[in-house]
Amino acid sequence: MTSLLSVRDLSVRFTVRRDRSRRQVAAVTDVTFDLSPGECLALVGESGCGKSVLASALLGLLPGNATATGTALLGGTAPTRSAQNSSGGGLGLPTDDAAPGERLDLPGGDAGAGLREELDLLSVGERVLATRVRGRRVGLIPQSPAGHLTPVRTIGSQLAETIRELTGTPRARLGEAVLTAAKRAAFPADHLGLHPHELSGGLAQRAATALALVGDAPLLLADEPTTGLDRDLVDRTAAELRRHVDGGRALLLITHDLAAAEHVADRVAVMYAGRIVELTEATSFFGSPGPRHPYARRLLDALPTRAFTPIPGMPPALDALPSGCAFAPRCTAATSACVADLPLLTDGVACHHPLQADSAPLEDNDALQV
Ligand SMILES: Nc1ncnc2c1ncn2[C@@H]1O[C@H](COP(=O)(O)OP(=O)(O)OP(=O)(O)O)[C@@H](O)[C@H]1O
Ligand code: NI
């Protein structure tokens, strides 16, 4: 299937001042993956491994001290018959690769050819990202919803404004549309009159989710969308996200919650110290043969429903990464080759000694060989 998003060699470097010298923080390094319409890729990994920075890079939301390199092609989408008619047709785009259920009758009278052409998200620039990409072609459920909500406006009025802007819903039907949008994210209707600071973390999360779903963007980036939610709301959010994907949209699900990832994801990418170290089908990852990278295996074993064994040691500092495998100092299977040579992602795993099928949980008392 044609990719909706093709990320190639995406790297992000932050320049920071430390001890009166400038240092480079390698937050994301050489990340490559594809995402198709109707597919969910879960991006998992310990805190600080670069997941949110990756999402920010795709939306042009990096701070000023960051530099992103590589490419992130967002595929063009074909117009529907009605959009073709209304815009006079002939947008010069292929019509046979539209995702099933993809929203193509683009809102807001913005149905120009540029809206649907292929874009490199890393090079298009802020104006295109702000007017044509964010919310319309790429939706974001941010990790810190409070920072993305307007503090002085009620959730209801923020939803109404976003709905009007992105879908062109007439004023008379806005009230009904706000209720529908809130319900999709399990945001209670009787809280729509509240301001962001009056909401709990979980409610702010649901408000941000409702806002992100409004544009029905073909690609959704959901950064920890279930943080702060009770288990039944986690399940509801996971089900809503899956519905979104089954409607033909693509989802990059960034999460610590491997259980939620198991319910929603088609494929899993495991990040460690800024790199993808394993990229595989969710059924193989969560079932058989299981993760093949020792770090991925440890991550899964750390789940309370599995071996419940924490991963020993700490991830490396991103401004002083080793030249070989960054996981080697914590890896019980590491050899001198792991310290000397960086293993590249080959056949879905970046490891010199990938685990064999259905291997037993790794033991903490295995002596580190490095
Ligand atoms: N503005 C910045 N300047 C310097 N370093 C930064 C900046 N923003 C993020 N980083 C670094 O980039 C790394 C990756 O951060 P990121 O937020 O992507 O992690 P994450 O995987 O999303 O973690 P979490 O699961 O905790 O959300 C971190 O080590 C962080 O310190
Ligand atoms: Ni994050």
TrEMBL record:
GO terms for molecular function: ATP binding. Its EC number is 7.2.2.11. It catalyses: Ni(2+)(out) + ATP + H2O = Ni(2+)(in) + ADP + phosphate + H(+). Residues 7-298 form the ABC transporter domain. InterPro entries: AAA+_ATPase, ABC_Ni/Peptide_Import, ABC_transporter-like_ATP-bd, Oligopep_ABC_C, P-loop_NTPase. It is a peripheral membrane protein. It is found in: Cell membrane. Pfam families: ABC_tran (PF00005), oligo_HPY (PF08352). Keywords: ATP-binding, Cell membrane, Ion transport, Membrane, Nickel, Nickel transport, Nucleotide-binding, Translocase, Transport. Residues 77-110 are annotated as: Disordered. It comes from the Bacteria. Belongs to the ABC transporter superfamily. The complex is composed of two ATP-binding proteins (NikD and NikE), two transmembrane proteins (NikB and NikC) and a solute-binding protein (NikA). NCBIfam families: oligo_HPY. This is Nickel import system ATP-binding protein NikD. It comes from Actinocorallia aurantiaca.
